[in-house]
């Protein structure tokens, strides 16, 4: 992939003497804590989404409507798509003009943090489009880099600029001091090549208020995000995680799942608890069909999407809202089984399945296009 030079891809140290969020008492709540709202972005990029993003837009509408059953939903839209989005989305979903390069709010949006005194703030990570000039998924990413600053001004909250290239999908926390991530992503030289594991752990602790980090070796097979943990494993409650699981030992995903299981079985969280692991079946394997690869602009500056390419489908890529779980429907062979497991894991919430293949064709899924704003 060829790119022209653009923004720097490495972060800088905080100003000397400037306190970090952790030093001020802020920390990141778990996704299963109560939300005030959910933030999303509107898909329109023609080299990511086929046929002018019309099929993907319908899937995004379905996700927004499902989440809006239990919390306020904001959808950020580029000016040229504002009227279209406003007409497609129900009136109770808030449409705001918020320009972006693509629609992955989990990764380009803020990581919200809270303070015991009731304050809300955010972490503004460095963003380099999942790999920078040589390995990133698209170019440019200038609008994406401004999203966090804009949301902080819209909400009137403090924004902490972190000295770390990181996307929101690369981390999950339990809200009690534990963070889970993958070596494949955060130790990838296309993110923070000048930083050691210890340095990365230090900044995660300082900006998210965590004290214990669990490192899984790899993310899902052929995940173009370089192994985001939110496609493989997530916290569903203190001491409990959901893990995607592949029974077929001939599938490369099987070894990844078993590696992760070994780490999780031998891990404890920040409170000293052993983890309870709940397996979700892997859909597929899923591949891009010939007709699904058509209608996409082919640009040298973006990740190609070709017929036969395997997609990193996972039922772990669901969203936990206040009263519903919004999960992707990806494979009729496994959809109901996955839905049943999630219903048992979240007995007080209603599980809503959304047909999500169009989102997966763009490279992610429901968790990837959402970002929770905690209630304070």
UniProtKB/TrEMBL annotation:
Enzymatic reactions: agmatine + H2O = N-carbamoylputrescine + NH4(+)
UniProt-recorded Gene Ontology molecular function terms: agmatine deiminase activity; protein-arginine deiminase activity
Pfam families attached to this UniProt entry: PAD_porph
Active-site residues, record numbering mapped to chain: 368 (amidino-cysteine intermediate)
UniProt cross-references to Gene3D superfamilies, sorted A to Z: L-arginine/glycine Amidinotransferase, Chain A
EC number: 3.5.3.12
Keywords tagged on the record: Hydrolase
One BP annotation, GO: putrescine biosynthetic process
Region (Disordered) residue spans: 1-20
InterPro entries per the UniProt record, alphabetical: Agmatine_deiminase (IPR017754), Peptidyl-Arg-deiminase_porph (IPR007466)
HAMAP family: Agmatine_deimin
Family membership: Belongs to the agmatine deiminase family.
PANTHER family per the UniProt record, alphabetical: AGMATINE DEIMINASE-RELATED
Protein name: Putative agmatine deiminase
Source organism: Vreelandella sedimenti
């Amino acid at each position: 992939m060829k790119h022209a030079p653009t923004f720097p891809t490495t972060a800088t140290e905080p100003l000397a003497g400037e306190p970090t969020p952790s030093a001020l008492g802020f920390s990141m709540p778990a996704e299963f804590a109560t939300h005030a709202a959910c933030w999303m972005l509107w898909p329109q990029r023609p080299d990511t989404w086929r046929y002018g993003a019309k099929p993907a837009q319908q899937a995004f509408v379905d996700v927004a409507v499902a989440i809006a059953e239990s919390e306020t939903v904001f959808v950020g839209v580029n000016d040229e798509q504002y009227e279209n989005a406003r007409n497609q989305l129900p009136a109770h979903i808030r449409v705001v003009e918020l320009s972006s390069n693509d629609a992955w709010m989990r990764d380009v949006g803020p990581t919200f943090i809270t303070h015991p005194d009731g304050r809300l703030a955010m972490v503004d990570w460095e963003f380099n489009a999942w790999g920078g000039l040589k390995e990133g998924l698209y170019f440019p990413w200038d609008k994406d880099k401004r999203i966090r600053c804009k949301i902080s001004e819209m909400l009137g909250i403090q924004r902490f600029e972190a000295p770390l290239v990181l996307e929101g999908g690369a981390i999950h926390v339990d809200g009690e001091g534990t963070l889970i991530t993958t070596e494949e992503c955060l130790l990838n030289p296309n993110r923070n090549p000048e930083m050691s594991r210890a340095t990365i752990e230090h900044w995660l602790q300082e900006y998210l208020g965590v004290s214990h980090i669990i490192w899984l070796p790899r993310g899902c097979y052929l995940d173009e995000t370089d192994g985001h943990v939110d496609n493989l494993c997530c916290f569903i409650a203190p001491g409990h995680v959901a893990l995607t699981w592949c029974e077929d030992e001939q599938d490369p995903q099987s070894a990844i799942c078993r590696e992760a299981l070994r780490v999780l079985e031998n891990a404890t969280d920040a409170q000293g608890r052993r983890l309870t692991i709940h397996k979700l079946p892997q859909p597929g394997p899923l591949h891009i069909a010939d007709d699904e690869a058509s209608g996409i602009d082919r640009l040298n500056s973006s990740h190609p999407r070709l017929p036969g390419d395997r997609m990193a489908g996972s039922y772990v890529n669901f969203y936990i809202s206040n009263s519903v779980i919004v999960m992707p429907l990806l494979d009729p062979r496994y959809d109901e089984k996955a839905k049943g497991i999630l219903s048992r894991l979240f007995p007080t919430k209603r599980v809503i399945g959304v047909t999500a293949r169009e989102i997966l064709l763009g490279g992610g899924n429901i968790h990837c296009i959402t970002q929770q704003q905690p209630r304070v």
